[in-house]
Amino acid sequence: MTGSSLVPPRSHPRSEPGPPVAVTPAERLRVLLVEDDEGDAFLVGELLAEAQAAVDLVVANSLNQARERIAGVDCVLLDLGLPDAQGLDGLRRVLGVAGRAAVCVLTGRQDEHLGIDAVAEGAQDYLVKGQVDGVLLSRALRYAVERKRADENARRLREVELRQAESARLERGLLPQPLMDTDEVSVHTFYRPGRHAALIGGDFFDVVQTTPERIDLIVGDVCGHGVDEAALGVELRVAWRALVLAGVPDDAVLPALEQVLMSERRLREIFATVAAVRLDLAANRATVRLAGHPPPLLFRHGQVVPVPAPGGLLLGVPPRPPRAFDVEFDADEWSLLMYTDGLIEGRLGDSDERLDVAGLQRLVAEPAARDVPLPALPGWLVGRAEEINGGPLADDVAMLLVSRGGGR
């Protein structure tokens, strides 16, 4: 024994630990010893000091005192026989407040089976009193911290994998394959989550052909981000497809969709915007209905113009069905771009000005855009919007580009 005293608890607060990383030999560990026997507590401090372990030891003599001192520690060294907690019950209570800290338990020789049970309950390791020296104790504490951090990394990786799998399932619901069998028009789709995140948002689209001459298209956006909004977007998209395939009159489709939204949303504040288009291929005409959504862009005669359809109220506010607006194409070559507002809400450089519909028109009219093949145009537009924004767009972007005659 060296006669060194225990290191007193540090009085300054410790910052919240970052993501788990591997412990390096030079890293000092902050260890909370929960031990009511002063002699045993003194011995632990002496063993660590004798081994010159890089450990700052904090001592608590009860579970209640441990709760007050556990913040910021890397490892808890717990005696299973405390005045206010006995055996595995004390361990469970410590695990409940330990957070990212590893937990090692101390047992007597006659209670070694409790150590095995403690590991099964969630402790990283156990030590038998009287059978460890300072080097072994220091190593056990360090390995316990490494094991805990490895477990945390594995848990986080699993959570990411589960979120990605959930997003993939939602994406299949939000972004279906167009249901059409004509070659008179081509439809190109695009989707990108905001800031390239793993989780999908509430943007959705769909395309349904019900007769040889009629094709219905929709692009929508549920306000907010996350799994709940994406699930609601899936419900709206599926409901819209069912309404169209059932032959519900055009003017009744969006009011019915609003009823679905209002009955399924988790909060009254949640709304959705929608742009719906019915193409009449025989008449070369489109009927457009907007519910709080930016207008589609029409490419024809070498010009790019927004469809001047009147904008109805958002879906989910006091109902007022959007009015229909007919667009006569009067040409056999045209394209119609439908998009969610994530595409036009990016900023223009360092200013507070948004790209908006007029800025999107300018992008489509750029000389470089004329050389971009139609299937690649949506991705090209997002790339240019991100260049102007100075980084990834904050919101999700969904697009439908429908063309007749193969030109712009």
Describe the overall structure.
This protein is an alpha/beta fold. It has two domains: 29-157, Rossmann fold (3-Layer(aba) Sandwich); 175-404, PPM-type phosphatase domain (Phosphatase 2c, domain 1). Helices cover 34% and strands 25% of the residues. The longest helix is centred in the middle third of the chain and has 41 residues, at 134-174. Residues 1-24 have low confidence and may be disordered.
Task: Summarize the topology.
Blueprint: E1 29-34, H1 38-50, E2 55-60, H2 63-69, E3 75-79, E4 81-82, E5 85-86, H3 87-98, E6 102-107, H4 112-121, E7 125-128, H5 134-174, E8 185-192, E9 203-211, E10 214-222, H6 227-245, H7 250-264, E11 272-280, E12 285-291, E13 297-300, E14 303-306, E15 311-312, E16 325-328, E17 334-339, H8 356-365, H9 377-389, E18 397-404
Parallel strand pairs: 1-2, 1-3, 3-6, 6-7, 12-15
Antiparallel strand pairs: 4-5, 8-18, 9-10, 10-11, 11-12, 12-16, 13-14, 13-17, 17-18
Helix pairs in contact: 1-5, 3-4, 5-6, 6-7
